[in-house]
Design a protein that fits this description.
Keywords: Signal. There is one protein chain. By secondary structure, this protein is mainly beta. The protein has one domain. It has two helices and 36 strands. The longest helix is centred in the first third of the chain and has 10 residues.
């Protein structure tokens, strides 16, 4: 399977609900860094794209990032309600987080410049394959929501100390206004003996989980506090190691997969540390525990279910069923409660992506509508109000469809796989029925859907644009 260059860029951006920027000379389109005052024309919509019919091509705003290197995904994130967009800018003093109203583009806050760690030699030598600058992630928090800006690289305490590989993070309250400083900052050492691609970072309700190689995982809270040694959890009443590829800080504890048992099944169960377990939330047609027997080792059993992805307060898990047909299910992250199922398998995707490796364009993570009623993941679309999910791009001679985003009206957007000279076809899919419709070839599909607007990322040879178009009335 091959994906065209332009579509690959779109998928790279879609794979990041907080992503990456690049380095270059050049300044901001706005006023001086660190100020929330800007000219009315600074984000005026200048670009012309062809969006799906639900969006007004003539009404919206845009940010042109000519400081970004070609091929790097644009760094932005949406608030939990989808009504606020945060994006990074690059100034001579450092990276600046700008927070805007989604529909109007009005600037709500601007962070003080933040110094990211310097790229490692590995990152510098492979700019096309590795991420080199900060990313933005949404942290739902408790009473307050945050945006996290974080990056992998090399940093020294001062000029008298040697540089070490670290993950640096800074947190900013979503509801802050004007010129703002971080609520907390932290540097987590990532062992230089580990490959950079072994460093995982997962955002969630309580902050960032950082897993440097095979060392103990740490939790970085929005106040900058670092909690060490969280690589052990208790799932279903039994001790377990943290899943190094999927472990996110839920509101009441770490949520992760259990050990793969000796039966060889790609299962092992999942749950929250010291709380609910997958054996308590099995979907219809699935056994809570899988059992079998090997001639050489005898009988075995293992809990069913395995997390594939997550978004917002939802998990997407795969289950083995009694009919041997795969099932994907959406679960509430806090309680494990079953929200919806679809009769198809799903490709596993980390909640966030390994750093500093660029995301795999074939593995876009889940997307959630601003109102929380609909969810997409890969070739599946879920209606969380009815509990029904649909599989798209299946059947004889059907082109595979990768869904990227979904709106409050239940319309999901994505692309077909490239097939020969036909290229990728933009499509829309109904979350209520699962019916897919081709869109005109020139259509640009939204990277995400905000409350009242669509977010489009476009790439040119010398600059990247964040274009936000209003939903048509």
């Amino acid at each position: 399977m091959r994906i065209g260059k332009n579509v690959m860029a779109a998928l790279l951006a879609g794979a990041l609900i907080g992503t990456v920027s690049g380095c270059s000379s050049g300044g901001s389109e706005d006023d001086a860094p660190g100020t929330a005052t800007e000219k009315p024309t600074d984000v005026t919509l200048k670009s012309k794209i062809t969006p799906p019919p639900a969006f007004a091509s003539e009404k919206g705003w845009e940010v042109r990032a000519d400081w970004m290197p070609e091929g790097q995904p644009f760094p932005y994130a949406l608030s939990a309600k989808g009504d606020i967009i945060a994006h990074l800018d690059k100034t001579t003093q450092g990276y600046v987080l700008k927070v805007r109203e989604a529909v109007s583009g009005r600037l709500l806050s601007t962070s003080k410049p933040w110094k990211a760690p310097e790229p490692t030699e590995e990152q510098t030598e492979d700019p096309d394959g590795l991420l080199t600058v900060p990313r933005v992630s949404q942290i739902t928090g408790g009473e307050r929501e945050y945006f996290a800006v974080w990056a992998y690289g090399r940093k020294s305490k001062d000029q008298l100390h040697s540089a070490k590989e670290v993950v640096s993070a800074a947190f900013y309250p979503v509801d802050a206004s004007g010129d703002i400083g971080p609520s907390g900052t932290a540097d987590v050492e990532a062992s230089a003996e580990d490959s950079a691609t072994d460093v995982n970072v997962f955002p969630g309700a309580r902050g960032l989980v950082v897993i440097p190689g095979f060392e103990d995982a740490v939790l970085v809270s929005p106040d900058g506090k670092v909690s060490q040694g969280i690589s052990k959890v208790k799932l279903g009443g039994k001790p377990s190691d943290l899943d190094l590829n999927l472990a996110f800080p839920g509101p009441d504890g770490l949520v992760t997969n259990g050990k793969l048992e000796k039966g060889g099944s790609d299962s092992g169960g999942f749950g929250i540390d010291g709380g609910w377990h997958s054996t308590q939330v099995t979907p219809p047609g699935a056994d809570a525990v899988l059992k079998g027997e090997f001639a050489s080792t005898g009988p075995w059993e293992t809990p069913n279910g395995r997390i594939h992805s997550a978004t917002g307060n939802h998990l997407i898990a795969g289950w083995y069923t009694t009919s041997d047909k795969p099932v994907s299910a959406v679960h509430d992250l806090a309680t494990g409660k079953l929200r919806a199922t679809a009769p198809c398998a799903n490709i596993g995707t980390p909640y966030d992506l390994r750093t500093p490796k660029q995301p795999d364009q074939y593995e876009t993570p889940a997307g959630l509508s601003p109102n929380g009623d609909y969810l997409v993941k890969g070739g599946s679309v879920f209606d969380l109000k009815t509990g029904k999910g649909h599989c798209v791009g299946e059947g004889k001679d059907a082109k595979k469809i990768t869904l990227i985003s979904v709106g409050d009206d239940g319309t999901a957007y994505g692309l077909t796989d490239q097939s020969g000279t036909e290229g990728n076809m933009p499509v829309s899919v109904s979350a209520k029925t699962g019916a897919a419709k081709p869109l005109p070839v020139a259509t640009t599909t939204p990277d995400a859907v905000a409350k009242g607007a669509g977010v489009f990322i476009t790439y040119a040879s010398h600059y990247t644009r964040l274009i936000v178009l209003n939903v048509r009335n």
